Amino acid sequence: MRNIKSYKSITPTIKENCYIDDSAVLYGDITLEQDVSIWPLVAARGDVNTISIGARTNVQDGSVLHVTRKSKGNPNGNPLIIGEDVTVGHKAMLHGCQLGNRILVGMGAIIMDGVIVNDDVIIGAGSLVPPNKVLESGYLYVGNPAKQARPLKESELAFLTISSQNYVKLKNEYIEEHS
């Protein structure tokens, strides 16, 4: 795979049943757990820190995934950690943040360094989550800067898992068609 690239002799680790579109590029210290899908034009650089993507997570078209290097002021830097059953919408930018499980990141959202997003959260399209903010579980966040808008409805909480399951089915179709 020409789009899976080493950096300083570290190559991405890809578990079984993952789909990576030919136009996506993954560099360095990246781990994809089972059933992850990486869609067209995603750029993921695990060059100066690590990227970890949990099972059944999907990263949609044009998204950018990056990290923050280690420094004197930030000895661990900021890795990018994405939990299980996460849907990352088209053209989202995730930089050195931590996302829990069952999260929907809306299209064009930006989540910055040091942010912690707890489980069961929806981040609205176009929202900006500023550095070091913590998003509480069970809420919708919208705006620039993102603010807690309201509790999630039961139907929205259920949709978080439905979304990831739909992308597992879709990536399986892509794998079958292109194998």
UniProtKB/TrEMBL annotation:
Domain of life: Bacteria
InterPro entries: LbH_gamma_CA-like, Transf_Hexapept/Carb_Anhydrase, Trimer_LpxA-like_sf
Coiled coil regions in record: none
PANTHER family from the UniProt entry: DYNACTIN SUBUNIT P25, PROTEIN YRDA
Annotated protein name in UniProt: Gamma carbonic anhydrase family protein
